[in-house]
Every structure is written in structure tokens, then in C-alpha cells.
Amino acid sequence: MLPAMAQVVQNRWLRSVYVVLGFLMLGIGVIGTVLPGIPTTMPIILAAFFFSKSSQRFDDWMLNHKLFGPLVRDWRAGVGFTARAKSIAITAIAATFTITVVWVVDVPGVRIGLILLAMAISAYILWLPTKPVEPDKS
Asked: For residues 30 and 21, what is the distance between their CA atoms, to the nearest angstrom?
């Protein structure tokens, strides 16, 4: 299934806002590929969304990007994420939230809130479709 064409908005001001938000999310996603604790997947998907609303050229660039393209195409097609990607995401969430709750935050209510947030994010990731592993084509 091919991803749908971008639905670029007509309002010039709104398109500009979407471009800025797209690059902001892309920047966060790129930083997240290098720094642990910074999310990667959702900012990249959000960047693709904003680019689809602002520019056909940027949308095409995201869809054809070597690293991010498959993620965006799978998301738009409703295929989901691989079991490996889900386990990495949940492990990263568990690690970063544990460090934050144990060593950074001292307020009990905030700690409980962070634990509940980590559980909710993990549950959402598990709820998403799991992409079947494709056989090796070599």
C-alpha cells in the first residue's frame, strides 16, 4: 500500500507554521537517534505529518529518506512497528523513567505521575500493530 499524497493546506501562514514545526520535530528526532532518553520515532512521525500539510517536496523527502522513510511509510500504511522496535522503545522508556524517578525527582506525586506516564506510553506502544518480520531476500 502506497502512502497517500500530501494534503498541503492552502493558508500560507499555516503552511509556514507547519514547516517550522516539521523541522523542529525532525531536529528532535535526529537528536534522539544519538542521545539516549530523547524520543526518535514519534517526533519523526510528527515531522512527516507537518511536512505533509506544508510541502509536497518535504513530504516526498521524508518518505524517500534512507533512515526515516520506512518508518513513516509503515506508520501511514498502518503496518505498525516491529517487535524489536517495540522492545527497544519500552526498554528505553523503562530505563530513562527509572533514572528520573530514582535519582532526579524528589516529589512523591511527581514520581507517581511519571510512573503512570511511563506505563501509559508503554501500553500504547504495545497496543500498536506489530509489523511482521520480512524474510531475508538474499
From this structure: 14
